[in-house]
Amino acid sequence: MNHMKKWKKALALTGGMAVLTAVLAGCQMKKYEEIPLPETTVKSSYEAEGNAVEEETEKKGSSVERETFANPANQSHEVESSPVKAEITKETAPAMETRDETVYVNATDLNVRVSPSSTASSVGKLNRGAKLRRTGYSQSWSRVIYQDRECYVASQYLTDLAPASQETAAPLTSSSQGGEIGLNGDWKYAGYSKINSGKAVLYKAEGNNRKGKVVCVNAGHGTTGGSSVKTQCHPDGTPKVTGGSTAAGATTAAAISSGMTFADGTQEAKVTLALAKVLKDKLLARGFDVLMIRESDDVQLDNIARTVLANNMADCHIAIHYDSTSKDKGAFYMSVPNVASYRAMEPVASHWQQHHALGDNLIAGLKGVGVKIFSDGKMEMDLTQTSYSTVPSVDIEVGDKASDHSAAALDKLGNGLADGVELFFAN
Ligand SMILES: [Zn+2]
């Protein structure tokens, strides 16, 4: 009941009645798109890029528009009176539904164009909150009145929410524009979590390359007080089958440990967070949605809470860690121990091969960008994360105490991990 209360409170705070309904209806990860996160609470990876973005996303429209875009001559040589554009206008505009409504801009530097094409002349730019009268609508373009004339803007950047309502629907934190997701006490295994008042944040990719997949990026450690609370190692209460930070044979372990300290004095949790942020941006740019477990030094979510959030809100779960050796031995993932009883225990039994597939692909991605790999890229470990995971899930150790953790090194790791995610979902 305690979890349930916390969860309901979190939902109330985030203003998510529809979320509540969806979740109560047993709506799980595949359905997350039905959860109407307010537009303003979803951070676009592209917003800052202005025009380039619009060029990308506007390609989403009709096949007529796509064909037009595929014509290279049109890209560079189009002029106001060109026959190509006349054709676009003729073919696209009549497909619009007639509207007479007020809409608001939900983007920055949104181009206002003379015809429904991203190659058409722009007669001005609008910013978030700008009010417009919409007279025509299609999925890709809206006809609006701008300075007393009919113009066109990309439909996806318009909303019927007035700026005031957008403000009301905004999430609690000022540092993040993401949609906050708390632990739902009804989710399977949620009751095993002891620390779960924190919130993960869901980011949605925008653009025409959306993958429709949510990647949970879990920056290892970073839960104040987590090491003094114990949680059950396995959902069935059996003891751990391998050693590690908790010895084999134990039935409980630290709810979440504080992590190691690099040879240069930097805390592991600082570096895993920095890498998680790098990876988030790269995944969003590649069209993946991202569930960020942690975005600051402390999130009150233990390993079980993080895992259950990933189980229910993501299509895979990547926990980022550095190992506690001092050899710069290279990257590897924690594989599922080849112990019959462990591999027979649910949810491990049904999912361990998926965990390995994810781990193998991440290692392949890292290897592909030249990251040093330890041994064959894996090490058997009985982890709380794996013991409760129902989506493909790995703890990846991208280095150790002696590894370079400069911005350049993190960028390279981010590329390798993002490549690995692409490989995983492509296979
Ligand atoms: Zn770690």
CATH topology of the largest domain: Aminopeptidase
Which word captures the global form? Answer: elongated
Structural class: alpha+beta
The CATH architecture of the largest domain can be named as 3-Layer(aba) Sandwich
Instruction: Give the N-to-C terminal Cα separation.
Output: 41 Å
Mean pLDDT level = 80
Provide the β-strand percentage band: 15-25%
Q: Cα-atom Rg, whole angstroms?
A: 24 Å
User: Under the CATH scheme, which class of the largest domain?
Assistant: Alpha Beta
Distinct small-molecule ligands in the complex: zinc ion
- Count the domains: 2
List the strand order in the largest sheet. Answer: 8-9-13-10-14-17-15-16
Major sheet description: 8 strands, mixed
* Number of helical stretches of at least 4 residues: 13
CATH superfamily name of the largest domain?
A: Zn-dependent exopeptidases
Q: Which series of helices and strands comes N to C?
A: HHHHHHEEEEEEEHEEEEEHEHEEHHEHEH
Low-confidence segments: 1-92, 164-177
Number of strands: 17
